[in-house]
């Protein structure tokens, strides 16, 4: 190992003692296979002598079999993971590698330069303090160099090493090095990257990786390893105190602590703190750990705080310095990185996780998309996989936050799909669009219950979903007539009619359909609030939006009616001639033909129109609606 | 204190991960394998929730073929009032008498461990299992997430794994899915040893060299730990001073000859040694990429 074998052999205790004080540096490497990135990482591991003999034997064997170095050791094979990608010869995900020297432990996030680069690089960069950007000395600053640098600056990495590699192939030329260095610095200045260390290198031959190169006497700076070992990266870790509550620690009635990780600043017993979003203030009583109480807890420490007052705080709340508060808001401008193959749908309801809390959220149409290669702002209606855009983010409830540029943990978020639970995006909060403390709901004395009372009915939204031509409007009309005859106050919102008015600006793309449903649901919810029984007749093909409508109205006032007519039957009827047109390709995105319909999983009423007349169906629905009355 | 050491950082990160795991899951469990990484995990769990006891039970998926010293150590842990230990043995494996000698290491591991784990998780309806795997153990693990999603069939699908940014972990599951959480992801073997030394964490004595009865099989030194071991005609176990670098089923775990009978001695040997950790385990040798295959089938 790079560790001094002599000391290990002589005095292991002294050796370990000296190693207890190592610090940790996390960095990311950016570049493509062609830049020699895997070779560089492989060499760092190899030269730290962290490659064990059996791995080395495998490396020698593999180098001969599949290596690209004519049978010489191919270091790239050391860092190559999953079987599938070994065959393809590319890396397709973020891999984490570890090595350590006398001075530091290192965690390297290795991300591919090819496919999926944005998603993977953003992921790897989110936990890195430093980025090593590789450039092929024969090529200079390329489009991908700009892309990598932009992502590095976007994720707030302050320190960059520009490794100008493969200089052995250009005769170790200082001119080549100088001109690339100059070129890069000009560009990096635009991105606001300040700390740049440029190192001339040959990862293949080992020049300036761990050993100073004898081939480039004109370079007097540090080797890559020297730089990584000595750079100071946590100079910025002195913001105001921030502590998201992860877990309320309550072993018995006498102890009530708040467990979490300090994500900003420091805290000491006696400090005045405020709990957000509630706004309650108290003082820190103790900093409790398994190893005894602490006098101080600093950034990155995981501790349990007790407070001097019996105050309420739960998971997701944030304990902060009372004299240096974060803002509390529910609407933000944010940069969003989309990570899913399903495009982002403005107005669809997602979940957003910030710190220890998960909140319902919608993302507005992007203000612009950023071309990661040119940094140009482009108009965009939505974001696809690996797109980056700036958009407004609306949350269901206000949260405490700091701008991402001030605190990564207080301003970074992930976006979660409510149905698949997959992480579909990530983002960075920039600023609040309005302060939530200025927005107070008007306290209304005449509320939904009062209005419903004068009408003598329980406000309800009956949501008819099904294919075009399934018979939704027919059944809904019948239901309305029957309810009206029974003296109920009703209103029918019909999808076709709404498209002539409130929704006339919308088409039939997925994004427009989602917005169509959202607006209709909002209107239905207002009408229910006014005390009415609202009948909505809308194809509403996606489960997520129907769930959104349900959430908006409230589960107990929502009746989902699935008007279930098989496609063949609806198409055979084709009263409006729409299916024929769709089949001729004149109506693109037609549900059931070339756009999906997601069947309800558990509708309150399931109407199978081939087995049941419209009359019977309407009776069943009325029964169900009046059932709510009782 | 102005900066944290790398071990303090790793410890704090592991604690953070464990707290997220219990907060996001409905029925979390910690897998307990009795090895040194499990010892470190127990220690971290005690720290993470102090002064509360860890809010999850421990699950030992037993094969009946572990070392006697491991059972003795496990029973001591079970007696600790802070921990609740569940031991699970696959009833089918008991009934069929599955063992490494007659059925081979592949079948043995698959039925006792892979199937046993799936059965236990389904039986107790655990939706999240905390395990001690590390990214440095094996190449295919370098890309493993800290929160790793498994299908209802407990399969690992590389395409469904979620991007993990900052300290934000998405542990949400759809019905039937479950999560494996690895708080030691960013630790290396040296970190684990150094931490055991620094924190004085108890571990199974098999990690320290002692005279033990062994026979040589396919180039591996195997300890004859009980009378179920079928000796070849004329084969006599030999007392040699050996220790184990990983622990599992005794017939499948190779010993190394060593004079290191103290923790410091072991760390010293480890630092000067030239073979990597998992080489002592028969399971990884079966075929190239075998760990990856096992993972897809649901082996932890």
Catalogue the unreliable spans of chain A.
81-91, 438-444
Q: How many strand segments of chain A?
A: 27
Number of strands of chain B: 10
The helix content of chain B is 25-40%
User: How would you sum up the major sheet of chain B?
Assistant: 6 strands, mixed
Rounded radius of gyration of chain A (Å): 31 Å
Count every helix of chain A, treating DSSP H or I runs of 4 or more residues as helices: 18
Features:
heterodimer; A: 630 residues; alpha/beta; six-stranded mixed sheet; six-stranded antiparallel β-barrel; 18 helices; B: 300 residues; four-stranded antiparallel sheet; 8 helices; 35% helix; globular
Compact overview of the structure:
The complex is a heterodimer of chains A (630) and B (300). Chain A has 630 residues and is α/β, with parallel strands linked by helices.
Q: Your description of this structure?
A:
- The complex is a heterodimer of chains A (630) and B (300).
- With 630 residues, chain A is an alpha/beta fold.
- Chain A is built from 18 helices and 27 strands.
- In chain A, strand 7 (242-249) and strand 8 form a beta hairpin.
- In chain A, helix 14 (510-529) packs parallel to helix 15.
- Residues 81-91 and 438-444 of chain A have low confidence and may be disordered.
- Chain B is 35% helix and 16% strand.
- Chain B has helices at 6-24, 36-49, 68-79, 91-96, 100-124, 189-199, 263-272, 290-297; strands spanning 28-31, 58-62, 85-89, 128-130, 147-150, 178-181, 210-217, 220-223, 238-244, 255-257.
- In chain B, the strands form two sheets. Chain B has a six-stranded mixed β-sheet. Chain B has a four-stranded antiparallel β-sheet with strand order 8-7-9-10, with no helix packed on it.
- The longest helix of chain B is centred in the middle third of the chain and has 25 residues, at 100-124.
- The chains are: A alpha/beta (630), B alpha/beta (300).
